[in-house]
Amino acid sequence: MENGSTKTTDMDDLKKNTIISEMKKYVQKFKAPDGSLYDGLPLQAVQKLASAFHLPTREVEGAALENKILPSRYSRNIGTIGFKGQARLLKSKVAVVGLGGLGGTAAELLARLGVGQIIALDAETFEESDLNRQLLATEENMGEEKTISAVKRAAKINSSVEVFPYQIRAGEKEFREILKGADVIIDALDTFSARLVLQKTAKDLKTPLVHGAIAGFVGEVTTIFPEDPGLDLIYGLSHKDEKGAEMSLGAPTATPAIVAALQVQEVVKVLLKIGKPLRNRLLFLDCETCSVEVIELKS
Question: Looking at residue 145, what DSSP letter applies?
């Protein structure tokens, strides 16, 4: 959870100007990877200002970015994301549905990026078979609810990120209530029927959905906008195999991490309107042969 109040507030100009004036006392010159200098705000200063003004750290970081002062934790983001992009990420809400090998990694990457709010949804607790690939799983938290682990992990990584945990096995009604307000949804589920319900919900909510799936050394990623056919073009209308090849091939450590990273990159492209999302295209990767293919999806 974030520092200070978890309620987002709208600062008036006077208060914002006061914060910026105080903030400038803590600004330090930092050297970017390309050698240029920028005005940076150390993490300790962000936390001190948040405490002094009774604000969430996300509000302090947002005010800094609006004034071309870079919270130092994002210094390696800024070359590609920019000040406006980083500010947009802080104001965004992304839902991660499923917190296993894909979703747990995606949730951590979103927190490190500085996505301000994360909806974390899963019904399960950790068991020993999760330890080989699920980033949130440790020997110490066996039996713990995955959503609670997601909250704890995000708090250790980025105090400007607020995680909304939902420990529930959701159907269409629950999806609709929980996911309303999300800017993008990450599909990190492992059953076909649940994916179809999630896709329908995303379409109804008019929210982009980033799908990912793995089996053994292979994985796939696509981004589905509300008006797109989506999963029907990949699996067909008569698909009935709930868990697919993952049941026989398993889920070795690296494959879900790679696919989750690609899913998060798709989220960034959608949120910031940069690059070319994998819309109506399926990225298929085979880690065993180190081959990647992008397949055009046509109805």
Answer: B
Query: pLDDT digit string (tens) for 80-137?
Result: 999 999 999 999 999 999 999 999 999 999 999 999 999 999 999 999 999 999 999 9
In the chain, the domains with their CATH numbers are: 13-89 (no CATH), 92-296 (3.40.50.720)
What residues pair up with 119 in beta bridges, in sequence order? 95, 164
Evaluate whether 41 touches 64 at the Cβ level (below 8 Å): yes
Residue 28 sits at φ, ψ, to 5 deg, of: -125, 150
For the entire predicted model, the pTM comes to: 0.91
Dihedral sign for Cα 88, 45, 109, 207, please. Answer: negative
Nearest to 68 by CA among 38, 92, 42: 38
Short-list 160, 162, 164, 163, CA closest to 59: 160
Paired strand residues for 284: 220, 293
Rounded to the nearest 5°, which phi and psi values hold at 284? -115, 125
H helices of the chain, in order, are 13-23, 43-52, 57-66, 78-90, 101-113, 146-157, 172-179, 192-205, 231-235, 246-249, 254-272
Question: If phi over 0 gives left and psi between -120 and 50 gives alpha, with beta otherwise, what is residue 210?
Answer: beta
d(CA 181, CA 119): 10
284 contact partners, CB below 8 Å, separation of at least 6: 218, 219, 220, 292, 293, 294, 295
Amino acid at 155: A
Place of tokens 């799983």: 137
Q: Which amino acid is at 227?
A: E
Torsion of CA 175, 185, 246, 217, to 10 degrees: -170
